[in-house]
Structure formats: structure tokens, C-alpha cells
Amino acid sequence: MPPSSGERLIQLGNIYRASQKRIATKSQRHEGVVPWCLCAIVILDINSTHILRERNMATTLDNLKEAFAGESQANQKYLSFAKKAEQEGLHNIARLFRTTAEAEKIHAEGHLKSMEGVGTTAQNLQAAIDGETYEYTNMYPPMLKQAEADNHKAKRMFGYAVEAEAVHAKIYKMALEAAKQGKDLTGVDFYLCPVCGYIELGKPTKECPVCGTKAEKFVQV
Ligand SMILES: [Fe+2]
Ligand SMILES: [Fe+2]
């Protein structure tokens, strides 16, 4: 079994001490011999041990990111599969999908916590603003353009998302202002368009500005 990084550091320490003894003996014969080359070797080796340790940590972080993405997708996929099973009258299979989706959510949440992905609410709101902003400024516009060029059916939801994400970012900014003052949002109700994901503050009186869904179809979560 290869030595652990801790054992390797002890070994290097021993090599260094032994080399110092040898040099001390030599120094008695050749005044002024400086063990700089050995120091350099030891420092280089210790640095490479550090790099290796950092790389191992980065790899676990990469694994966490991959696992979090996979489990999150599985959660959503199983919920969609459950909906389909319900439509087909297969209620127990739907229940199985929902239960497994919940299990994947437990895994996803654990992975997110392990990668320090949950901060204070103010930090989380900032992360949410950054994510939503990235989506409607960088991510979705070229995706929408491509889908339109391909005349792919994805253009519908890409188009909805690019508009809805901008609204999400705006509402999160409002929430962040409150959170920064240690306050919760008050006096607001959120109504969700079940077709495009647009969020209205307060009970909607008009159709959805993004997709035209009627006001009475909006839902509260
Ligand atoms: Fe969003
Ligand atoms: Fe909508």
C-alpha cells in the first residue's frame, strides 16, 4: 500500500534529518557546504504532496457536483414519470416514482451540503440572483436562437424561461434587500403561472405577460 501523505511527510522529515547529519559530517571536512539542494528537494516533494492533496479535494468536489446534478435530475425525472403513471391510472407505480424521487432529493441535498452549497439566506439569495441572471443573460438567449434556427419545439420553453428567469432575479433582489436588513418579505403573495414559470406578486388580474395563460389558472405554491 502506498504511504499516506502524512506518512510521506514523516518519511521526508526523516530523510531530511539524515541528510543533515551526513552534511554535518561532511561540513566538518569541507567548511561552508550548504544543504540547499536537499532543502529544495524536500520543499519540492512537500509541495507536490500538497498539490496532490489539493487535487484529491478538487476531485471530491467534482464528484459532488456531478452527483448533485445527477440526483437533482433523477428527482425531477421521477416526478415527471410519476405524473405520467398517474395519467395512465397506474397509481402504485406513480407512488413508487414519487418515493424514489424523494430518496434522490435526500441524496442531492446531502451532496449540496457537503460542497458547502447552502449559506445564509442572504448568501443564498445572492447565489440565486447570480444563477437566474446567468440564465437569462448568457445561457438561454443562444439556446433560444439555436432552437429557433432548428425550428425545434424546445424554442417554446426556452422562450418562456428566458423571460421568467429575469422576473425571478428581480424578485430575489427584492428579497435580498429585506434579508440584508434581517427582515422577511411581508405583505406579498406569489402566484405562479403553471405554463411558463412566470411569477406574479399579488393575485393576478390579467393574463400571463409571458405566455398569455388566464389569470385564474395561476397557482400559489
Ligand atoms: Fe428561475
Ligand atoms: Fe405564463
Task: Draw up the topology in text.
Elements lengths: L4 H25 L6 H52 L3 H24 L6 H30 L3 H27 L9 E3 L6 E3 L20
Antiparallel strand pairs: 1-2
The structure holds fe (ii) ion (2 copies).
One fe (ii) ion binds next to helix 5.
Write a short abstract of this structure.
The protein has 221 residues and is mostly helical. It has helices spanning 5-29, 36-87, 91-114, 121-150, 154-180; strands at 190-192, 199-201.
Name its key features.
Ferritin; Rubrerythrin, domain 2; 3% strand; binds fe (ii) ion; globular; 2 strands; mainly alpha; 221 residues
Folded structure, characterized:
- This protein has 221 residues and is mostly helical.
- The protein folds into three domains: 1-118, Ferritin (Up-down Bundle), CATH 1.20.1260; 120-184, Ferritin; 187-221, Rubrerythrin, domain 2 (Single Sheet), CATH 2.20.28.
- Helix content is 71%, strand content 3%.
- It has five helices and two strands.
- It has helices spanning 5-29, 36-87, 91-114, 121-150, 154-180; strands spanning 190-192, 199-201.
- A two-stranded antiparallel sheet has the order 1-2.
- Helix 2 (36-87) packs antiparallel against helix 3 (91-114).
- It is globular, with a radius of gyration of 29 Å.
- The two termini are 55 Å apart.
- The relative contact order is 0.05.
- One fe (ii) ion binds next to loops.
